[in-house]
Amino acid sequence: MSGYLRRVVRRLAVERLAVVRFAVERFAVRRLAVVRFAVERFAVERFAVERLAVRRFAVVRLAVVRLAVVRLAVERFAVGRFAVERLAVVRLAVERFAVRRFAVERLAVVRFAVERLAVVRFAVERLAVRRLAVVRFAVERFAVERFAVVRFRVPVVRERDVERFRALAGMVALISGATAGVGSTPIGLVVVSSDDSLDV
């Protein structure tokens, strides 16, 4: 009887040990599963966080690149606009200088024309004065000669006949000196141009 009880007690102890061992192993398995699930969940969360960080970094980098592109476009536009404005300023300065130069050249041309007109006018006036003086002198000479002809009956000869009259007077003087021994009486002559001869 006692042996049977021992076997029953031993069997119960073995079964209880098996149950306890199974419970321990089951608890260990559950705990391992929980830990493994936690590790996997942590890994998934970490991967999600890293992926989100990568996406966020990519977005930030794209924004930086886009901002750099926009800034470069703005700077390029500003440089182009500045170049256009500078070209316009230079062109305006060149046109203004050309206008001033044209005005100066035109003023010089007008001044030269005025001076030339003044010189021509002075020459014309001087020629008119000389011509008037010549005409006045010719009129006075004509009046004096006419007065001499009318008053003293002085013969008037032409310039082409002067040499003939001089030769004739010399011959008369020689003849008179040879015959009478007395000098010849001087012959008064009025010499005028060939076109201004007067009839006595």
Structural descriptors:
200 residues; mainly alpha; two-stranded parallel sheet; disordered C terminus
In short:
This protein is mostly helical and 200 residues long. It has helices at residues 2-152, 162-179; strands at residues 156-158, 190-192.
Would you mind describing this structure in some detail?
The chain is an all-alpha fold. It has a domain at 156-200. It has 2 helices and 2 strands; from the N terminus they run αβαβ. It has helices at 2-152, 162-179, and strands at 156-158, 190-192. The chain has a two-stranded parallel sheet with strand order 1-2. The protein is rod-shaped. The N and C termini lie far apart (217 Å). The relative contact order is 0.04. Mean pLDDT is 81; it is low at 181-200.
